[in-house]
Amino acid sequence: MVLGFLKRKGTGNVDSSDSSQVFDQGSQTSNATTATSTVLEKVPKLTKRKTPFENPINPIKPPEFNLTAEQQKLYDQLLEYYQDYITKEIPINDSHNAPKHPLTEDELVWLTKECFLRYLRASKWKLETAKTRIHDTLVWRRTFGVVDIPNVTDSKKLITADLVAPENETGKQLIVGYDNDNRPCLYLRNGYQNTSGGLRQVQHLVFMLERVIQYMPPGQDSLALLIDFKAAPAEMKLSSKFPSLSTSQQCLHILQSHYPERLGRGLFTNIPLIGQAFFKLVGPFIDPYTRLKTIYDQPFANFVPAEQLDKEFQGLMDFEYDHEVYWPTMNEIAEKKHKLYMENFRKYGSRIGLSEYDLRQELKGAVEGTDVAA
């Protein structure tokens, strides 16, 4: 477009050594050159990328809990209950009469202030319901292979990067960038489906959920889910087949039961007619509050900074998925963030009820003005 503009104006190909000659040709040519420079300045420059971003563009902000007196009382009661609860052993899985085992460090660090509040909100501030739901999730995480209990967990059932790597060879799920509110973005690309339905697809989703949680910056405890139904390039010969209803129901159950209040925003784009019919089928299984957070066929650019958004969605990033580059890097970044999280947990006394804001900070000491014990 810019070259065409130059040709129409008759300026020809001009290099820096001929600049004085250009100005000698008169004001008309000078004005044309100025206009051309303006056009060139406005052409967006794309940045090539094959790996995730480690941090959001926007400033980090501390969380604002804003609890009423009654809500604070319920939170205090839930924290007190679990301070006693963690001294006991719990089942290693959900089978009848399963052996019991003490909570591991990875399970204790999961019991944060924000975690308790997420479950209280999801339980509509009903204390007993929140207690039950947290207990159920702790046991589910053991059963499904999310946490590893040394010398107890079946290594074949443990969800690891190696186990689910084949599911992501085409880049059907991506953690790339952060939205305007600093939520890490998890992309689901239905058109890049490379495997048939089954347990490993569900394990893959859970693995990526755990990973995107590790990418959350201080002050943010929810994610942005961006779902694109556009077909992959024809030469990739991939499927755009929707997951089976049973698989979709299982995924929805896991999301709503064991990751409550984690979805901060859901964006859907390029929805085909068959997709609309699919949503009608799964719609009854989606929690009404979750449904309120979903937005259909609005530009992703309205919600994600251009610098961290792919050109396909009107962003300034030229992203290319290379499994051999992306997959190890994505996991290395997540592990580095998790290591910091655990180091801070130990610095603060390995107590439950710590704030995720403090646990995610790169700190030399305690955070001023933050009640880490709250």
From TrEMBL:
It catalyses: a 1,2-diacyl-sn-glycero-3-phospho-(1D-myo-inositol)(in) = a 1,2-diacyl-sn-glycero-3-phospho-(1D-myo-inositol)(out). GO terms for biological process: Golgi to plasma membrane protein transport; negative regulation of phosphatidylglycerol biosynthetic process; phosphatidylserine metabolic process; phospholipid biosynthetic process; positive regulation of phosphatidylcholine biosynthetic process; response to xenobiotic stimulus; sterol biosynthetic process. One of its GO terms (molecular function) is phosphatidylinositol transfer activity. InterPro entries: CRAL-TRIO_dom, CRAL-TRIO_dom_sf, CRAL/TRIO_N_dom, CRAL/TRIO_N_dom_sf, PI_Transfer_CRAL-TRIO. SUPFAM superfamilies: CRAL/TRIO domain, CRAL/TRIO N-terminal domain. Keywords: Endoplasmic reticulum, Microsome. It comes from the Eukaryota. The keyword Ligase does not apply. The keyword Flavoprotein does not apply. This is SEC14 homolog 3. It comes from Lodderomyces elongisporus (strain ATCC 11503 / CBS 2605 / JCM 1781 / NBRC 1676 / NRRL YB-4239).
